Structures are given as C-alpha cells and as structure tokens.
Amino acid sequence: MLMRLSHDLGLYFYDVLVARFDVWAAFGVLAQLVFGARFIVQWIASEKAEKSVIPMGFWFLSIAGGLMTMVYGFARRDIVIILPQALSIFIYIRNLMLIAKDKRRKAEAEMPT
C-alpha cells in the first residue's frame, strides 16, 4: 500500500510540476511570489517600527500580485481565481484611497489659517 501511495504521489507531482508546467504556470508562480512578498515587506516594516504597521509597499505589492493572479485566472479560465482577486484588488485600491484622504486631511489641519 505504501509503495502504491509513493508511486501515485510521484506521478501526481510529476504531472503538476513537469508535465503541466507551462508559461502560464510559471507566471502564476511568479504572481504568488509577488503577492507573498507583501508579507515580508510588512514584517520588515513592523520590526523596524517595533509595532505592527502596514507600509504603502504592502498595498502596492497586493495590487500587483492580485492583478497578476487575476490575469493568470483569466488565462486558465478559472472563476475561482478571478472573482476573489477582482474583489481583493478593489479593496486594496480603496485602502490606498483612504490613506491618501487621511494624509490630505492631516496636511490641511497642519496648514496655518
């Protein structure tokens, strides 16, 4: 039984990593790496600040990785990837809009009247 399982797992991973690996799969892996890099950026910024922070780079990597993953979903014709990425990208952009609005409000409050 273990020999059969080992053989089947080997065939599965060969199929996923070799037989079906194409340019779009490589693009999808790259998209996930870009998307995942946002957590490294957030972690480094938090360590420097010695508190939990979300830097602007986090949002830009979120948008870039989300767009790339959505393109991958369109290429693969996979609605399970397309729909959540479209919603997420909207949320990331909205967060940037709220950050910009807050910065404008603070700048206006600091202006002498």
Provide a count of the helices: 4
Question: Which range best describes the helical content: under 10%, 10-25%, 25-40%, 40-55%, 55-70% or over 70%?
Answer: over 70%
The major sheet is characterized as:
none
Strand residue content? under 5%
Round the mean pLDDT to the nearest integer and report it.
Answer: 93
Protein name: Lipid-A-disaccharide synthase-like uncharacterized protein
Keywords: Membrane, Transmembrane, Transmembrane helix
GO molecular function: lipid-A-disaccharide synthase activity
Question: SSE layout and pairings?
Answer:
Layout: H1 2-19, H2 23-49, H3 56-76, H4 79-110
Explained architecture:
This protein has 113 residues and is mainly α. The protein has one domain. Helix content is 87%, strand content 0%. The chain contains 4 helices and no strands. The longest helix is centred in the C-terminal third of the chain and has 32 residues, at 79-110. The model has no long low-confidence stretch (mean pLDDT 93). One of its GO terms (molecular function) is lipid-A-disaccharide synthase activity. The chain crosses the membrane at residues 23-41, 53-73, 79-97. One of its GO terms (cellular component) is membrane. One of its GO terms (biological process) is lipid A biosynthetic process. Residues 27-98 form the Lipid A biosynthesis N-terminal domain.
